[in-house]
Amino acid sequence: MLLILLGTQSAFTYFNNPLELGLKSSVKLNVLKHYPVNFYYRLYEKVRYDQKKNQYLANVKSFSFDASVQDSVVRNNTVVFIIGETQRADLYHQELAKHTDQLQHFDQFNFVPLPNFYSTANSTAYSFPLMVTRATASNPELSFNEPSIAKLFSEAGYKTFWLANQNLFKGPEGKSYKEEVDVFKPLWKQGGLDTVVWEPLKEIVKDTASLKFLLINLKGNHYRYEYPEVFELYQPNLESENVYAFDKSNELYFRNSYNNNTAFQLSILDSIHSIISEINGPTSLFFSSDHGESMFEPPHYFFGHGTSTLPLEQVHCFSYFWFNNYYIKQFKGQYENINNNSSQPYSFDYIFETLADLGGVHYQGKNVEYSMVYKEPMLCDTIKVRTGESITVIDVSSVH
């Protein structure tokens, strides 16, 4: 069984410094607000959107990964891939350390943190396709030429599911990706917190298919932060003070609300661990946020993400593996490989191959060196990040 959980949002950036947008962009945005320019521009966007979607459908119509489960041991398998929303590594690890006693399913044996994991884009619109396909920051067009990881698992004999608690389907690829799973549930239409995934997740766990693939996208730390009152642990915060201005003078309010939301999200993930721990067979889970978040750090004092100037906190993501005891016992070598290499720098470029290995899926063109399951995965000194239409290279060599 493979479960993928995603917590993502559309490209949504807050700029503390208005010069970040640039004069040219500001003029363009102002012009596009007025009729008839706005009408013809939206019409142009619709035509381009339809062209992109038709291109994608034509390209993937006859595409095949030639995927199969060749390992005779993989007969009953669950893989969980959780992609979070705006969850940055440092703040999540801080909260995790504070609440260890309450988070019973984040134990050291089953939980393997990845302290040096990086997104290859700093907004959801760009991140999402790079997480569910073989596309990279350098070759994003591949997301229009190949289907998603759901198709890979489907070809290999997995039953595929998607629980969506946020509408990611505004791009042509996204609308088509959801058609590549057997069961799709648009939970965001209920307008609830991420707790809405629990009951349908329990039903999927009970499904009689021996091999399952599940994609779940969560609201995560989507601004404006949503969490039950019981998680209002830090005050003053945005809610208690009714603060809206994106100004550094309000940094404490933003951080406290973000940390409250983080504690809530960790409890959501802990409950998901608990639910899938009931599976009577090997179960592996991989989590990564779609990107990080700036919280008024110097020298730029940005709040949000998606800026063309790239602060590290916008791409340093909270990420980890979780395994049940069945998996650790049956696939001890893979578990040890992941543990032994957990501190080295990774990025979205490693997701596709890693999930394939967790599912025991083989396919044409497989590159094991980009799998975190591999004994000696490819070491990376730099990571290429897509910031809008540009590529920014970040140096991570000091992590080795």
Topology of helices and strands:
Layout lengths: L1 E6 L15 H9 L5 H24 L7 E2 L7 E8 L4 H10 L12 E3 L3 E2 L5 H9 L16 H7 L3 E6 L7 H6 L5 E4 L11 H9 L4 E8 L19 H4 L9 H26 L6 E7 L4 E2 L7 E2 L11 E2 L1 E5 L1 H6 L1 H9 L5 E2 L3 H8 L2 E2 L19 E6 L2 E6 L5
Parallel strand pairs: 1-3, 1-8, 3-9, 5-14, 6-7, 6-8
Antiparallel strand pairs: 2-15, 4-13, 5-12, 9-13, 10-11, 16-17
Helix pairs in contact: 3-9, 7-9
What features would you highlight for this structure?
400 residues, alpha/beta, three-stranded mixed sheet, 12 helices
Walk me through the structure:
The protein has helices at 23-31, 37-60, 89-98, 124-132, 149-155, 172-177, 198-206, 238-241, 251-276, 325-330, 332-340, 351-358, and strands at 2-7, 68-69, 77-84, 111-113, 117-118, 159-164, 183-186, 211-218, 283-289, 294-295, 303-304, 316-317, 319-323, 346-347, 361-362, 382-387, 390-395. With 400 residues, it is an alpha/beta fold. An 8-stranded mixed sheet has the order 4-13-9-3-1-8-6-7, sandwiched between helices. Strands 12-5-14 form a 3-stranded mixed sheet, with no helix packed on it.
Task: Please give the number of β-strands.
Answer: 17
User: For the largest beta sheet, what order do the strands appear in spatially?
Assistant: 4-13-9-3-1-8-6-7
Order of helices and strands: EHHEEHEEHHEHEHEHHEEEEEHHEHEEE
Major pleated sheet: 8 strands, mixed
Q: Which consecutive residue ranges, at least 5 long each, have pLDDT under 50?
A: 4-27
Structural class label: alpha/beta
Shape: globular
Please state the CA-atom Rg, rounded to the nearest Å: 21 Å
Tell me the distance between the termini.
33 Å
Relative helix content: 25-40%
The number of helical elements comes to 12
Strand content: 15-25%
Mean pLDDT: 86
